[in-house]
Amino acid sequence: MQGNLEKFDLSGRVCAVLAPRGKGPYGCALLCGLEPEQLPALAQNLPDMVLMAVQADGMRDYTPWAAPPLQADRPFTGQAQDFLDFLTGQALPALALRAPVEERPCRRLLAGYSLGGLFALWAAGQCGAFGLVASLSGSLWYDGWLRYLQDTPLQAGRIYLSLGRAEEHGGPARMRAVGEATRSSYALLSGRLGPGRVTLQWNRGGHFTGIPARWQRALCWAAPYLTNSDYGDMAPDAGPD
């Protein structure tokens, strides 16, 4: 996809939109945990869709409730609701002013990496603005996550999960729970949404291995639903990193 990249400030946050040059309307993807400068490279092998990245502080904006720090670091402050309100109340309207986007939730994707992936899944339990949700190496080890998922039906119609095979074997003990938490999340979501509605992609390596390729796979998974096109040649099962 070839498009025009626009960066702008919105309530003190740097935002970026990459939109195709056609008339649209296009499906759109809000990407959590991606720098604006990465959008053009990410879009090269994608069909026409609108991509948006919004500046965030992961420890604050992506955490749904407060939790202790991993080590002697900043605590997780749990202000995801404020960030979700910003996305739905300000970012989506600003996006609609800058690009010809579809307004139907089934043509919107909310995707995130690491804490951003946790946020994307959590957000689907709070609103129905995004019909598609992707959690890439999501921090599903987060304290209380599985309890939330068990108690809260997610409103997305299709969900994508991915994880590196080595992620559950390294890092602090809390983070090593990510493998079992991801499997449990997949099983619970599959039972609720039904066959074919939830995808789990395993990749080689740890949390920081092949991140651009993992973003590509998630967007390729979403592409048929965002564009109504046949885009199977880069499907999630095409192979690991």
UniProtKB/TrEMBL annotation:
The keyword Zinc does not apply. Transmembrane segments: none annotated. Keywords: Hydrolase. GO terms for molecular function: hydrolase activity. InterPro entries: AB_hydrolase_fold (IPR029058), Esterase-like (IPR000801), Mycobacterial_A85_antigen (IPR050583). SUPFAM superfamilies: alpha/beta-Hydrolases (SSF53474). PANTHER family: ENTEROCHELIN ESTERASE-RELATED, FERRI-BACILLIBACTIN ESTERASE BESA. This is Alpha/beta hydrolase. It comes from Luoshenia tenuis. The lineage of its organism: Bacteria, Bacillati, Bacillota, Clostridia, Christensenellales.
